[in-house]
Design goal:
The protein has 806 residues and is α+β, with helices and mostly antiparallel strands. It has 25 helices and 21 strands. The longest helix has 37 residues. The two termini are 49 Å apart.
Length: 806
């Protein structure tokens, strides 16, 4: 029985394929429509799968947890070295605990020096993850001890790129920041912790200042739950351990607690818009299915007489419905195959766009999971698009079909159904069009925001000085002062300066420091803090930050001179109100240092163009002995990149082993800070445009079908004196009425989607009237274009010919 059923299904599919082959235009239209919807879904699914759905590529990833300290406010923070050591010995619900932190090392001795993105990790990291080396070994426990960890692990990417995948790399000595390290292993291809961009791993080996400080909370911690332990139990235990630490060390831990979360929630940092894009592309597929259903309804109306004859001869409804569903399955299979090819091209396009903030984007492939998703989407498309037309066509009105002739028995019913589908497509399209409009509006508002500096004609270069060669008071400061003097003298340089953390950049040293007004007694509920940066003389001029009051740093602001600071307008307003801030004193709570405010500068949006300016305190480089990272800014008279090579040569003249970690223009840096927003707007806008196109095709098809079924009626009206313009107006009016109905039905869903988008919106509300009005104009304009050709066709009906054919 099962074999006979399978044979019957195969025969139905073969007959369906032959029937569709005889109508190439109809078939190609449906296949391309489905391919657009299925291909876009498969591409976005591949991105979502790589970023969110796949489990962490480690052994038993559900037992991995991330943990750290929680501030009194509840905000998550990292651990200091002494706290990590205590937790590692005290925790019983965790069978392993490992600490790691980001680092930067310069690889020298093999051509031009190169900055390596490095992770300092305790040797227990790799056993905790259940990861081993593909070549050689990982770290031994004793290599965590100071002076015992002069070893290094290479990533597979670095091993292939820099060393030609040489299997003899083991045992070779690399010079990193002037110190020799022995290569003991190469990690497997595809290993990424914490992401795929890492070049090197070195043993943690806490420095003296790290071991002695409980306030340098810079270490990320990952652990593995012990057998039988639960995450809730780990949370309770770590909270008790943190409470004991707070009781023992009230000066640094009063009010602090602990947090414990699944590791995936911390290691996977996918953009919030990614699931939203998957939902948006799902709407596109629904619209495509509605379009296909409309076309199949039209084909069913054309075939009604044939189906009625077959039903009269004894063909059952199930048999007829199965044959029609077979056609839908063949169409969906062809659309899915073409969509799979299209999805590969779309993924390549996304990778070519280099989307920042999308983890694992360069590893995305249209793999077996994507193929399975495509197959499921194709089957769903076949059912959605073919079920209703199949059931309708399999229940012909035999009497009317045989009496009235081909297509007329259900022409009106089919027309009403196609118009209902067109209204539904329009409603879905307006949801995407309005959502895309809000996202684009937000992007425009962000890029038009004044960042507080002048990004034109400015070259920026970030440098990190290795402590092994720049240890000692004032050594790093003297290097940067010499570099600025030389680079400022380069031809075409108008101003030169440096800062410890550049606006909108993810490199540098950016601290949040508590402060108080020195001559004002602190209150119990007052705990103001400010972003702290070290800047050089000339930095504000080089970056184009306006000086509001007072003066810039001077060459006389050196060690031994009165301690001074420049603050931004926001801090001056919060700390001093309407009073003159110049000459007032601030106490930096962490160090106890008192500084005098000598200048006020404009606000800068350091943390993003969509972020409000924070209070900022700048200290002069001449009074700082601890800065080992600085970003140089050169204001140029001509194209900034023309000075890239001269600046490189200047750096190498001062230190042949010092790489420039970042070398770009300030304009590019500013542009890249909104890259994720630009990507979201482009993708969502593309989906909205595709949805609008499909909805327009659906509306066009519904109107064209209605006109084809009313040719005789139109001919009679024109014979009785109805003019061509009147006929055109009626058809266009019908199209606009359908579009308006779709807009009215889709508007509440559009507002609901806008509320979901709230976190992505800047300067525009979910119910923004201008955006929704603009979406309505776009929709009605598209409907007007979609109705124009059917209206012209209706106006061109030959009344006499129509009457003769009736």
């Amino acid at each position: 029985m099962a074999v006979r059923r399978a044979d019957a299904v195969i025969r139905d599919l073969i007959r369906a394929a032959r029937a569709l082959r005889d109508r190439p235009g109809f078939t190609l239209t449906i296949v391309v429509t489905l391919a657009l919807g299925i291909g876009a879904n498969a591409a976005i699914f591949s991105l979502v799968d790589a970023s969110l759905l796949r489990p962490l590529p480690f052994v038993e990833p559900d037992r991995l947890v991330a943990l750290g300290e929680a501030r009194p406010s509840g905000e998550a923070d990292d651990l200091a070295a002494p706290t990590f050591v205590e937790w590692r010995h005290a925790a019983r619900s965790l069978e392993a605990l490992a600490a790691w932190t980001w680092w930067g090392l310069a690889l020298t001795g093999r051509g031009e020096p190169e900055e390596m993105l490095t992770i300092r990790a305790s040797p227990s990291l790799f056993p905790t993850l259940g990861a081993g080396a593909a070549l050689g070994r990982t770290f031994a426990p004793e290599e965590e001890a100071p002076g015992r960890g002069a070893v290094v692990l290479l990533s597979d990417g670095l091993w292939r790129r820099r060393f030609g995948a040489d299997p003899g790399i083991l045992g070779r000595t690399l010079v990193l920041d002037g110190e020799p390290r022995t290569v003991v292993g190469v990690m497997p291809r595809g290993f990424r912790f914490p992401d795929a961009e890492i070049d090197l791993w070195i043993p943690l080996g806490f420095h003296d200042y790290e071991r002695e400080s409980r306030t340098i909370r810079m270490f990320n911690v990952i652990g593995r739950l012990a057998p039988g332990a639960t995450i809730d139990g780990a949370r309770a235990e770590m909270a008790a351990i943190a409470a004991a630490t707070a009781a023992r060390e009230p000066g640094t831990h009063r009010g602090w607690s602990a947090w414990v979360e699944p590791a995936a929630s911390r290691l996977v940092n996918a953009p919030a818009a990614l699931p939203l894009l998957l939902g948006a592309v799902g709407l596109v597929l629904l619209i495509a299915c509605a379009n296909v259903a409309s076309l199949l309804l039209a084909r069913g109306a054309e075939r009604e007489r044939d189906l009625a004859v077959r039903a009269a001869l004894g063909a059952g409804r199930g048999r007829l419905a199965r044959e029609l569903l077979a056609e839908a399955l063949v169409l969906a299979a062809a659309g899915g195959a073409l969509g799979l090819l299209l999805s590969g091209w779309l993924v390549d396009l996304v990778q070519a766009l280099d989307p920042e903030g999308l983890p694992g984007w360069h590893e995305v492939r249209v793999d077996g999971r994507a193929v399975a998703f495509t197959a499921a989407a194709s089957l769903a498309a076949a059912l959605l698009a073919g079920l209703v037309p199949a059931l309708r066509a399999a229940r012909p009105d035999l009497d009317r079909a045989l009496r009235e002739g081909s297509g007329r028995a259900t022409a009106r019913r089919a027309t009403r159904a196609r118009e209902a589908l067109a209204v539904g497509e329009t409603a879905l399209a307006i949801v995407l069009v309005a959502g895309a409009g809000l996202v684009v509006q937000s992007l425009l508002r962000v890029v038009r925001t004044d960042p507080g500096f002048d990004s034109r004609r400015a070259l920026v270069a970030s440098l990190f000085l290795p402590g092994s060669r720049y240890d000692g008071p004032g050594v790093g400061r003297r290097f940067f002062e010499d570099l600025l003097a030389r680079s400022g003298a380069l031809p075409g340089v108008l101003a030169a300066g440096g800062v410890s953390a550049l606006p909108l950049a993810e490199v540098g040293e950016d601290y949040d420091v508590p402060y108080r007004v020195t001559d004002r007694p602190p209150t119990s509920d007052e705990s103001p803090s400010a972003d702290f940066r070290v800047a050089t003389t000339g930095y504000f001029r080089a970056l184009g930050i306006p000086l509001v009051a007072g003066r810039d740093f001077a060459t006389t602001d050196v060690e031994g001179a009165p301690a001074v600071a420049v603050v931004n307008r926001t801090l001056a307003r919060r700390a001093f109100g309407e009073r003159d801030p110049l000459g007032r004193r601030l106490t930096l709570e962490r160090s106890g240092e008192e500084v005098t405010v000598v200048g006020v500068v404009g606000d800068v949006r350091h943390r993003g163009l969509d972020a409000e300016p924070r209070p900022e305190i700048y200290r002069p480089l001449g009074q700082d002995d601890h800065t080992h990272a600085l970003t140089i800014v050169l204001r140029t008279a001509g194209p900034p990149l023309a000075l890239a090579d001269p600046l490189k040569r200047t750096v190498l003249e001062l230190d042949p082993d010092l790489p420039i970690s970042v070398l770009t223009t300030l304009e590019d840096l500013t542009s890249s800070s909104v890259a994720s927003r630009r990507m979201d707007a482009a993708v969502l806008g593309s989906f909205a445009a595709l949805a609008l196109l499909l909805a327009a095709l659906g509306l066009h098809g519904a109107l064209a079908g209605a006109i084809a079924g009313r040719t005789r009626d139109i001919g009679i009206r024109m014979a009785l004196g109805a003019g061509r313009r009147r006929v055109m107006r009626e058809v266009v009016g019908r199209g606009l009425a359908l579009a308006a109905t779709g807009f009215a039905l889709g508007l509440p869903a559009a507002v609901l989607l806008a509320r979901v988008l709230r976190g992505m919106l800047v300067g525009v509300g979910p119910a923004d009237a201008a955006t929704h009005a603009g979406a309505a104009v776009v929709l009605l304009g598209t409907a007007l274009l979609a109705a124009w050709l059917p209206a012209r066709r209706a106006a061109g009906v030959d009344a006499a010919a129509a009457l003769r054919s009736s």
